[in-house]
Amino acid sequence: MKHYQALDSFSDIKVLSDPRRMAVVRLLMRAPATLSQLGEQLGMSAARVRHHLKLLETAGLVELDHTLPAGGFTEKYYRASAQAYFIQRVILPHPAQDGTIFIIGSHDPALELLADGLSTGLHHPELRAIPVGSLDGLVALRQGLCQITGCHLFEPESGTYNASYVRHFFPGQPMEIFTLAYRQQGLLIRAGNPRQIAGTGDLAREDITFINRRPGSGTRLWLDWQIHEQGLDSSVINGWLREVNTHAAVAQAVLSGEADYGLAVAAAARSSGLDFIPLFEERFDLVLTKPTLEDPLIGQLLDSICSAPIRRRISSLAGYRTTDTGAHVQVI
What we know:
Arc Repressor Mutant, subunit A, 2 domains, 8-stranded mixed β-sheet, two-stranded antiparallel ribbon, globular
């Protein structure tokens, strides 16, 4: 889908939190350069530049452009990667200026439908969603890397979602929360349930393999709470250390046979032809700062979410309910 772009992890954005590495990437966006050329322009030693280049290369933000022989040795010229140019769009001081809305946070199939629906109108904003998990999404919003974050963070004490986490990340700041949808989560298993998996009580079984979500995702936080409630040691769960970033990746692991089961939304099961064991319904919210509401693009987005066509598209997803879609959630 051309209006929906995902990154597999949040590590590349975190690498750029160091201003020296940001400076390196900016220089390499202008033109390829060698280690020594970068050092001269930045006033850094070759060893220090090499350290930052290695981290950027590992994150996929810089890459080798070409090599040239020079005085008996080979000079390596580096350039910014295509990934770096996308990240640059995310970290602009005002990303909405180019008509794009960035949503960094939890992965959700409804956001894909929303992005696709917006693309049908000539004057609608372009929506790009980057799945990094609910907690990292709130961090990104606090750092100004996006206009909106999507999250579904369960609060065991109250049995509700998101509000206390928002208050924790944004103390004293006026914040807004709007519901996108309710959705069902459960265990994805192969068709016919050949391994006879019944629920989370089977997590300790040695004969089946689990596929996990990464720490910081709302799904993982819910599961961590469940394991705590059951008094279960996660080290006994076969496959616990294998982690993926999206519901679709969970479905793919089960479909391919790399895992016997995993926790994800019902929509991911249906689209992959997998069976689904429902466990709970959760509320998926969109979080933004109150001043962001003054942006006309954001107003268009929220109006679209409340529209009948978008609500119908979201309702078409397996396990989705749009009873409160577009509703304002109180942040006390």
